[in-house]
Amino acid sequence: MNELVMALGWLGIYAPMALGAVASAIGCAIAGQASIGAMTETDGGYGRFVGISAFPSTFVIYGIVIMFTLNREVTPENSPGLFGVGILAGIAMLYCGIWQGRACASAINAAKEKPEIFGLALAPAAIIEGFGVFAFVFALVISGGISG
Amino acid sequence: MSDRDAYTALVCSLPNSERLFIAKKPPLSRLRLDSRLKALTVADAEVLARLEHVLSWNEYAVDITDAVALKRVRDALKVIRQPALRKIVHERMEMRTAMSALRLRRDGLAPPAGAFGFGRWARHIPAHWAESCFGLGAALPWLKEAQRLIESDDPLALERHLLDTSYLMLKRHAARHQFDFEAVAIYVLIWNIFDRWAQSDASAAARRFEFLAHAAMAQLGDIRFEGEPA
Questions:
Q1: Which helix (H) or strand (E) holds B69?
Q2: Range of A39's domain?
Q3: How many domains does chain A have?
Q4: For B11, which residue in chain A has the nearest alpha carbon?
Q5: How many CB atoms lie within 10 A of CB B74?
Q6: Among A54, B136, B157, B212, which is most exposed with the fewest C-beta within 10 angstroms?
Q7: What residues of chain B, 131 to 190, have a C-beta less than 8 Å from chain A?
Q8: pLDDT in tens, A69-103
């Protein structure tokens, strides 16, 4: 039983990093495809499109930081805490990354014909980033209470 | 990535559908549209072809019978599995059914026996043949204006009204689909409406040209050529 509990602890440590990487990969792929499509339709502003499509890459960075914060000697006592914080933070990163990719794709699609709305079109993606930051910061705060 | 993001690049490579109607020249030719649509999978391309085969007037011969047209719709619905696209087919065919009934009634024909056309109102329309808008004024709000235009014999305005109504129906469905196959299919259908819109302008221009040509020819009798006896 202890082995299973400790395995969950390790899962919790690595989950934010793995799920953050998946989130960034999917989010960047969605937004990246949108930027490629927009480039075929427009005559300029390519750099901005590529820049937006890299927005979701932050989630893997948050995941790495959470992973290092949670990284400690895994014991049966602290494994449930590591698992709970790590998995839930990872899921939050995953959803934020995917949906931020979609929000970026929409922004690119709208801004390709109306460059003047470029900044405003990024507002939904920025708000999603804010939710990701909440999950990140409070994962760091709450991990301080886990023993070890 | 899921199906909802399947055609992100394709959708972003198309000009905004609203631009189709305000641009002075077409922002996207059919040739270029077809070139972009090569990104579709074989299965999706087949569904789109069926959809256009059913909904585009260009795909119908002038002498096509009701039975053949209805069979074409039913065959297409066996292939079209996407709920939004099926709904679009139903809505458009119901629209055509109501318009066809209005034209028959204008020509003084008796109500068809049994079901007429396609969709929810196939039995309702013959049963309410004498009523204004077949009693469907509330269910089909666009029908009242269509009835007025058909009675005032204004085919161009009627065509515009029907294109407007079809466009608004498609935009309503488009709001729920952004980067998936349905979004691409709806875009193509809107492009087809734009195409017919542009063609209706060409038809109006042709009619105007014919009128002016007739007027000019009518005055030919007054022209006296040099050396011609008075």
A1: helix B66-79
A2: 2-143
A3: 1
A4: A37
A5: 11
A6: B212
A7: 178-179
A8: 999 999 999 999 999 999 999 999 999 999 999 99
